[in-house]
Specification:
It contains 3 helices and 5 strands. Helix content is about 45%, strand content about 40%. Strand 4 and strand 5 form a beta hairpin.
């Protein structure tokens, strides 16, 4: 009887850990996709999508730059279609995680009207806020 109880607890813990892992990866992938997908014709929506998945310093910094970025994106007629290629958790606890993401995007703008491919390697820090994994930091890494 004790063994059955112990096994049940272990299985539940494994399930919880796997669910947390999947939630972290899904949030990181969506955040990276939002960050690498912009369209000057819909930049208000695109920047709101980034902010919806953000928190803390990252959210404050991005929000503070939104007005300037809106002008820059419109002036350059920038469009970026992002695609997440890979994502992996480098560390996690029950309330925080660091995820490395590789994303590609096709970028077109006034100076590159036919477009060019870009690859991004991003390090995202996430924290659990009210049951949602939100991005608290983004760094471009080599």
């Amino acid at each position: 009887m004790a063994l059955t109880g112990w096994l049940s607890v272990q299985l539940y813990a494994q399930h919880e850990a796997e669910q947390r892992r999947q939630d972290i990866l899904a949030a990181a992938r969506q955040s990276a996709l939002n960050f690498t997908s912009i369209d000057y014709r819909h930049y208000d929506r695109d920047s709101r999508n980034v902010l919806k998945g953000a928190t803390g310093d990252f959210k404050e910094q991005f929000a503070a730059q939104t007005e300037e970025l809106t002008k820059l994106v419109a002036q350059n007629k920038s469009v970026s279609e992002g695609q997440v290629l890979e994502a992996g958790i480098t560390r996690s606890t029950e309330r925080s995680a660091r995820v490395l993401v590789v994303a590609d995007s096709k970028v077109t703008n006034a100076s590159v009207p036919k477009g060019e491919a870009r690859t991004y390697r991003l390090q995202l820090d996430l924290v659990l806020v009210d049951g949602r994994w939100l991005t608290s930091g983004v760094e471009f890494v080599g």
